[in-house]
Amino acid sequence: MAKLLSPVKYADPKSLLRQRPIRGNIFIGMVERRYLINYTHYNDYCQSLGQTTYVMQWGNSHVWKVGGKVFAIGGWDNGKYPGVTFKVSEIAFEMLADTPGCRPAPYLASRGMKWIQHYAEPGLSDDELKAYLAESYRLVSLGLTKKKQKELGLNQG
User: Fold this and answer.
1) Where are the domains of the chain?
2) What is the SS3 assignment for 42-79?
3) Disulfide check for 119: which of 44, 83, 131, 146 has CB 3.0–4.6 Å away?
4) Which class does domain 36-152 fall in?
5) Would you give per-residue pLDDT tens digits along the chain (157 residues)?
């Protein structure tokens, strides 16, 4: 969740929308946005989702799976910002495909799959990225067989 800060006065509040964020913490109006800056945070979060498995594959990519199916890939790095790829709904795909710092995932999206790669600034805040990773986990887990979902204790209830 974003941390609320005391108001800051700017000469032109709309200029905030045109500013490129710096790496790390930035401030937009009264809300602090934090950006994921390493794979340690990414791996810790994916591990916390439960019933997940981790493997390094495809050229040292950090691949996270649920029920043997991939839900997140961390591994494309432009030298200063980690790339994270995740599955999204059709609506989220349309929204994120044009978001600066995000793009349809190379290879996956070109085959008609709805995957987005978060690869550069400004991209998504940590909280936004975590929400999309959790949704990717949910979408992939719903695609598992009912038997596998029950075996893993997923989507019960």
Assistant:
1) 1-34, 36-152
2) HHHHHHHCCCEEEEEECCCEEEEEECCEEEEEEEEECC
3) 83
4) alpha beta
5) 343 333 333 333 333 333 333 344 444 444 445 555 678 889 999 999 989 999 999 888 999 999 999 999 998 666 667 789 999 999 999 999 999 999 999 888 788 899 999 988 888 988 899 999 999 999 999 999 999 999 999 987 6
